[in-house]
Structures are given as C-alpha cells and as structure tokens.
Give the backbone structure.
Amino acid sequence: MAATDYKLDDDGDLSISSTGDFIRIESDQQASMLITNTAQGSWKRHPFCGVGIKKYKGSSGTNLVMKRELTVQHVADGFRVNGITVKDYSNFYLDIERINND
C-alpha cells in the first residue's frame, strides 16, 4: 500500500476540492519535495529532517555533498535510493522508491 497524505499546492497550502473537502494523494513525490526543500529545524517533531537545497545555490563543488545529503535524508524517511544525478542545486534527478510506510 502506498503512503498517502493531504495534497499541498505549490505554495505549501492544503489543497481543497471544489466540494470543500481536503484532497488525499499518494504522497511519495510530495514527501520527497518537502524533504529536499525544507531545511533542518523546519519540522518540530523531526528537527533533523530536511536538505535545504537552496543553501547550495551559488556554491561550487558541492555535488557530492548534495548527493550524500539527499541520500541520507531520503533513506531516513523510508525510501530506497536507486540513484541520484546532480548537476547543480537546481538541476538534479532522484530515483527513489518507498520501502517503509511508517
């Protein structure tokens, strides 16, 4: 069974259907996006969760650091990392799959 959560819009707000209900989705992609974009300390219950990808903007030679951080954070959240390709902070590809729905 896939992990599900409430859908967030592009601004991080809860999405609401035309009938006024919250929308539930399979959430692996959304969870990965949140892990990647939020900085450590952003989550009260999980203060060490987050990559904070924006901190790598303008930095050179950080591809290996980014790759390691993306791997560590996704594995900690129950993903298997099959591969990561990093060109720069805004151009990377994650090949991940959920192995733990806890």
Notes: The first strand starts at residue 4 and ends at 6. Residues 63-76 form the longest helix (14 residues). The radius of gyration is 15 Å. The beta strands are 4-6, 24-26, 79-88, 91-98.
